[in-house]
């Protein structure tokens, strides 16, 4: 009850105060002490969080900064990027620096925690999320008590190093990571880095995503399972060496904090270490605490010491799954007749309990993990994890023996990866739900709790489980139509969702112009519009497939994201104008998706769904895929006329002046360039709203002042993604912007 009250207090929704008022009324009428306790804890927690939030402020303002900083956390050199959390004048900052030479990169890789560096930089406010339901970097940093980014222009490394005890342990972790990188084959060292030091960035994006969609990605991180196995092994070894139980417990209590810092101090590790320490203390003093009491106590301690941790994904997943397994162990798991059914039940409980967290943060969850965990958990816990630890320990004193053991382990891991790639081809492994709203989320949680309550009574309720599945579908169901102008930076991407899931259409995918870098400057997992922005936005809206993807023309900022999009979202039909396929970028895209239906259109192409219709007005003849060959699409949506013009310029605009182009809403051509949106064109279209999609402070100067003046003189309301982020039109309601 106390835990639920704490969790409830962190939910920021207008729906929550209404629930509290209703609960208060019920508590008064029924004179329920439990409900009154719930409300009291809720109010105390809410007040505590309010005070924490109020005190979380900065004494700095956005300005220039010159001075010394000490590196304290999250030290990372990735390609030409250097990042770290630093402390300057008793305040923390997120430092960023672009490395200029390979020699400088080597120098920065030698840095350690506690190092003093002199910087010349600018203090900048972190970005908020520019698309609805996306990662808010400003909030993320604020919850780490960081309010500014230190954007460094120049830095110099001081000889002064003054690490604290914690920093010394962190430096040991850095040395371990360096040793593993230099000693272990690149083919398998990502597993060593992940399972020994907690560093997950060594995996290729493809391999990591494969494990993720199969629901076994938790095995690639140090979790409670790994901590318990390690502590159990050390405890057993100490007893075998003749050490008494009391002294063995003291040794483990000393070792646990050291191990937590050594492995990156992630919430799942802290949770497991805290619970283990509490259980060891209960054994030492013969107080016999139950696992449930221990997990509740560790939760409360964790929250009081680090209030913001409750918002972290790792914390939520770790405690949700652990609570589920501990509560189920009393009746559900004890009724299982053999090891297989017990393992299947544990996997099912874990999947159900983690599903809500996965829906909220990742907009989907893997149902096949229920079965794949039965295969992969034994493989990792019996072979891969002990194998990595053994090879690591041997590598400290015997290179020859290390090579022999490494060859055997490499063969096994590569075999597992080969089988994994085969399993990954099984379709529909994940259920895309989008991010449920607060009401739906609470109903899903209540449904899961009620399901387990019934299961504990020896009734595996199929009916309640079906309700859970229907709620997952409901979370992704689009009752009202929407048109979303997604903020993809300097590019275009427009999502059209017809009411009642009757059609999902995407006009352009955004993208970046590729810039070649030297090998040393390339990042392990580079940012891409298609993979890092567009795909998460679509999944957050509950979209797992697109009925039509329309590429207006073959420029990188309109279609470079297509490749990453196709890897993550099912595309039923790809539409482009005749001649667009002749440009190299389109040829390459078509070559990697031969299974997707391709439709080449010119003016006159039409389709209709209910009252919503679409018609291609331009081009009338084969082109070359350039700006003036852009598809111009006229649509009737929500009884309003929409005109989507791609990058059409003035010459193309003149070519369609005799067409019926009057529209209520105009997607302005070429990001508001002065070569588009001519006076004659605007006089003919007469739009009420004009949407300009362009990047924040882009180097092209879009939108041009001349274009803005033209639209303003026509008394058109201008909406811009660079100023307002994602712009969403909801049928029957109108426009709303992500950035208020």
UniProtKB/TrEMBL annotation:
| Database matches in InterPro entries | ComA-like_MBL, ComEC_N, Competence_ComEC/Rec2, Competence_DNA_uptake, DUF4131, Metallo-B-lactamas, RibonucZ/Hydroxyglut_hydro
Q: Just give the chief location class.
A: membrane
What membrane topology is given? Multi-pass membrane protein
One GO location term (cellular component): plasma membrane
- Would the keyword Isomerase turn up in this protein's UniProt record? no
Localization (cell): Cell membrane
Residues that span the membrane, as ranges:
6-27, 34-52, 216-238, 250-269, 289-311, 344-363, 375-397, 404-424, 436-453, 460-479
Name one process (GO BP) from the record.
Answer: establishment of competence for transformation
UniProt keyword terms in alphabetical order: Cell membrane, Membrane, Transmembrane, Transmembrane helix
**Keyword Transcription regulation recorded:** no
**A Pfam family annotated for this UniProt entry:** Lactamase_B
Q: Out of the domains of life, which is the source? A: Bacteria
What sequence ranges are listed for the domain Metallo-beta-lactamase?
Answer: 490-696
Name of this protein: DNA internalization-related competence protein ComEC/Rec2
* Native source organism of the sequence: Listeria swaminathanii
């Amino acid at each position: 009850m106390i835990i639920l009250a704490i969790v409830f207090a962190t939910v920021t929704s207008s729906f929550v105060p209404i629930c509290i008022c209703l609960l208060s009324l019920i508590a008064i009428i029924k004179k329920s002490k439990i409900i009154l306790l719930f409300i009291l804890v809720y109010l105390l927690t809410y007040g505590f969080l309010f005070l924490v939030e109020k005190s979380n402020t900065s004494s700095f303002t956005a300005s220039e900064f010159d001075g010394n900083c000490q590196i304290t956390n999250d030290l990372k050199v990735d390609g030409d990027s250097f990042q770290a959390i630093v402390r300057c004048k008793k305040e923390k900052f997120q430092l960023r620096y672009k490395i200029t030479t390979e020699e400088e990169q080597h120098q920065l890789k030698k840095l350690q925690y506690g190092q003093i560096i002199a910087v010349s930089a600018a203090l900048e406010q972190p970005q908020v999320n520019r698309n609805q339901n996306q990662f808010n970097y400003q909030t993320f940093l604020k919850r780490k008590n960081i309010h500014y980014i230190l954007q460094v222009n120049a830095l110099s490394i001081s000889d002064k190093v003054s690490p604290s005890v914690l920093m010394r342990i962190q430096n040991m972790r850095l040395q371990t990571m360096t040793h593993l990188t230099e000693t272990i084959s690149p083919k398998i060292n990502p597993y060593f880095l992940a399972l020994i030091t907690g560093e997950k960035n060594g995996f290729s994006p493809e391999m990591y995503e494969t494990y993720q969609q199969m629901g076994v990605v938790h095995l690639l991180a140090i979790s409670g399972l790994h901590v318990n196995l390690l502590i159990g092994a050390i405890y057993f070894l100490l007893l075998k060496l003749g050490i008494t139980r009391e002294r063995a417990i003291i040794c483990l209590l000393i070792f646990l904090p050291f191990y937590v810092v050594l492995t990156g101090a992630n919430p799942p590790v802290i949770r497991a270490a805290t619970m283990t320490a509490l259980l060891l203390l209960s054994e030492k003093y013969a107080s016999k605490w139950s696992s449930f009491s221990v997990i509740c106590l560790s939760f409360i301690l964790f929250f009081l010491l680090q209030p913001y941790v409750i918002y972290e994904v790792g914390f939520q997943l770790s405690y949700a799954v652990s609570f589920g397994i501990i509560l189920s162990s009393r009746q559900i798991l004890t009724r299982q007749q053999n090891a297989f059914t017990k393992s299947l039940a544990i996997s099912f409980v874990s999947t159900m309990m983690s599903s809500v967290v996965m829906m909220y943060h990742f907009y989907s969850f893997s149902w096949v993990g229920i079965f794949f965990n039965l295969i992969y958990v034994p493989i990792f816990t019996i072979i891969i994890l002990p194998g990595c630890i053994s090879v690591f320990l041997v590598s400290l004193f015997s290179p020859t023996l290390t090579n022999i053991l490494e060859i055997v382990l490499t063969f096994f891991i590569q075999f597992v990866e080969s089988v994994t790639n085969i399993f990954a081809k099984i379709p529909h492994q994940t259920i895309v739900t989008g991010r449920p709203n607060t009401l739906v989320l609470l109903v899903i949680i209540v449904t899961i709790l009620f399901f387990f309550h019934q299961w504990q009574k020896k009734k595996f309720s199929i009916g309640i489980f079906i309700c859970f599945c229907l709620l997952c579908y409901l979370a992704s169901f689009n009752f009202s139509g929407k048109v979303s102008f997604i903020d993809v930076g300097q590019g275009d991407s427009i999502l059209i969702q017809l009411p009642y899931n009757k059609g999902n259409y995407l006009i352009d995918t955004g993208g970046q112009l590729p810039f070649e870098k030297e090998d040393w400057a390339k990042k392990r997992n580079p940012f891409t519009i298609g993979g890092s922005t567009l795909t998460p936005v679509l999944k957050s809206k509950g979209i797992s497939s697109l009925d039509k993807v329309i590429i207006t023309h073959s420029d990188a900022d309109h279609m470079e994201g297509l490749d990453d999009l196709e890897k993550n979202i099912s595309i039923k039909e790809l539409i482009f104008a005749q001649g667009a396929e002749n440009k190299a970028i389109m040829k390459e895209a078509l070559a990697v998706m031969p299974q997707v239906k391709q439709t080449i259109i010119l003016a006159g192409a039409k389709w209709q769904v209910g009252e919503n219709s679409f018609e291609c007005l331009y081009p009338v003849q084969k082109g070359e895929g350039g700006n003036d060959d852009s598809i111009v699409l006229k649509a009737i949506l929500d009884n309003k006329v929409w005109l989507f013009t791609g990058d059409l310029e003035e010459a193309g605009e003149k070519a369609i002046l005799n067409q019926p182009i009057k529209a209520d809403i105009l997607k302005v051509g070429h990001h508001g360039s002065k070569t588009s949106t001519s006076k004659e064109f605007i006089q003919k279209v007469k739009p009420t709203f004009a949407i300009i999609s362009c990047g924040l402070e882009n180097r092209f100067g879009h939108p041009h002042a001349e274009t803005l003046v033209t639209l303003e003189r026509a008394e058109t309301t201008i909406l811009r993604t660079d100023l307002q982020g994602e712009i969403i039109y909801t049928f029957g309601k109108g426009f709303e912007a992500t950035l208020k």
